[in-house]
């Protein structure tokens, strides 16, 4: 059960981080975007603080994880995995 909950959380974080990447790069081919209300809201400007944080990482900034909330640190880690700066594992958010 815990694994299922964790997978849903990871899917949500991956989705938001990808939308932030796609908005910056303008890539708009996400079929899932049409069905996910949280992702649609994010693409339309909600969660601007997370978008800015992801964009900082894209620009090469290395935010100090200790100074961020857990959620913000998870988005930084997720963005680094998507960019290939960190290796993917089932526990990348806990490392």
Task: Identify the notable features of this structure and list them briefly.
4 helices; mainly alpha; globular; 95 residues; single chain
Walkthrough of the structure:
With 95 residues, this protein is mostly helical. The radius of gyration is 13 Å and the shape is globular. The chain starts with a helix and ends in a 12-residue tail after the last helix. It contains 4 helices and no strands. It has one domain (2-94). The longest helix is centred in the N-terminal third of the chain and has 23 residues, at 2-24. It has helices spanning 2-24, 37-43, 48-58, 70-83. The model has no long low-confidence stretch (mean pLDDT 79). It is 58% helix and 0% strand.
Summarize the structure.
The protein has about 100 residues and is mostly helical. It is about 60% helix and about 0% strand.
Any chance you could write out the topology, listing elements then pairs?
Blueprint lengths: L1 H23 L12 H7 L4 H11 L11 H14 L12
Helix pairs in contact: 1-2, 1-3, 1-4, 3-4
Mean pLDDT: 79
Largest sheet: none
Integer count of domains:
1
How many H/I helices? 4
The helix content, as a percent range, equals: 55-70%
Q: Pairing-aware structural class of the strands and helices?
A: mainly alpha
**In terms of per-residue confidence, which ranges show pLDDT below 50 for 5 or more consecutive residues?**
none
Strand content: under 5%
Rg is 13 Å
Q: Tell how many strands the DSSP assignment holds.
A: 0
H-E order:
HHHH
Q: Give the N-to-C terminal Cα separation.
A: 21 Å
Which descriptor suits the 3D outline?
Answer: globular
